[in-house]
Amino acid sequence: MEQGNLWMNEHSLLIIGALTVLVIILLMLLISYKKQVNQLQAKYDFFLKGEEGNIDQVLTKTLVELEKSQKELETLKEKHNQLREQVKGCIQNVKLVRYDAFDAMGGELSYSLLLEDEEKNGLMMTSIYGRDESRSYAKLIKKGKAQTPLAEEEKKLL
To answer: C-alpha distances in angstroms, 67 versus 56, 71, 79, 151?
Structure first.
């Protein structure tokens, strides 16, 4: 036993140094674990969002809300598709070109107006203005093609 005491007295600085290094290592590990615990606590608090209770209740509530949102989304998709079908036949494309039908005329008083739906079906209305008279024409358009011959200005609209 005396030899142990003697050895400890001789090497006390070495023992104290080793224990100090060990304490420093343990403090570093403690700080590292504290950071990890704080990160986990922040995630836990994020999931709970300030509500009392446990994570199971919060997750269950979130899943119920998610399922409700998915059902609402499906309903909105169906409504969107219904509206899309309804709008297909409505006028969606309107183009107008103004021009001088006769060389002696100015002011671009003649015009052609194109009204089409999504499938390029519609109507082209043309008004040709002259000094002595004015004429109007309406021509049917099917799939982007006229059923009757078109003037150059009318062809530009298609």
So the answer is: 16, 6, 19, 58
What are the angstrom distances between the C-alpha of 126 and each of 58, 111, 138? 66, 6, 6
Dihedral sign, CA of 55, 59, 62, 64? Answer: negative
| Cα distances (angstroms) measured from residue 133 to each of 22, 38, 109, 129 | 108, 88, 12, 7
- pLDDT category of residue 32 using cuts at 50, 70 and 90: very high
Q: Is 142 helix (H, G, I), strand (E, B) or coil?
A: strand
Structure tokens, 70? 């998915």
Strand positions, DSSP E, 26-153? 93-99, 110-116, 122-129, 134-142, 145-146
> What pTM was computed for the model?
0.53
Give residue-wise pLDDT tens across range 68-112.
Answer: 999 999 999 999 999 988 888 889 889 999 988 777 667 788 899
Return the number of other C-beta atoms located less than 10 Å from residue 124's C-beta: 22
Of 75, 88, 86, 83, residue with least CA distance to 122: 88
